[in-house]
Specification:
The structure is a single chain. With 177 residues, this protein is of the alpha/beta class. It has one domain: Maf protein (Alpha-Beta Complex). It has eight helices and five strands. A five-stranded mixed beta sheet has the order 2-1-3-4-5. Helix 1 crosses helix 6. The longest helix is centred in the first third of the chain and has 18 residues. The chain is globular and about 45 Å long. The two termini are 22 Å apart. Belongs to the YjjX NTPase family.
Length: 177
Amino acid sequence: MDLVIVGSTNPVKVAAVQAVVARIAPNATVRGVAVASGVPSQPVGDEETQAGARQRARSALASTEGATFAVGLEGGVVVLPDGRMRSCAWAVVVDCHGREGIGGSLSMPLPDRVAARIRAGEELGHAMDAEADTVGTKHGRGAVGILTAGLVDRQRAYEPMVAYALAPWLAPAFFDA
């Protein structure tokens, strides 16, 4: 794990990957690159959000010579059967041999006012900016930071997902046939 590429230049996403990688490969370099997710700017549903994370990871790996691993992180929303909305987020890790791992988390109820803004076409981060009278939510504490009154911020919420997605490499005896 010499060079790990993150399929985003969002400082929160890069920092989350850096925090995890530093614990398992302290000498590795982590770098973000701008790549498209291939999904709408506000993914809806776990499948679409996973697809965005997967596309980010694959594109990041393909765009960077010498990279051994790439990580895609994507946040989305899920509409529940009763019409309410929750957040979701997924991490996909791919290596230079085509192996893939996936991990998810950040399932949290969203306020009705925020859900209404998302239904009207806003991204979650912009909806939270408007409702919390702030700017840069998705590049900072995230909706999770606002809605948990700072108990959890976006970076800390993303870190476990990255670790979950790395499970096939961290515990290969359980995943290798």
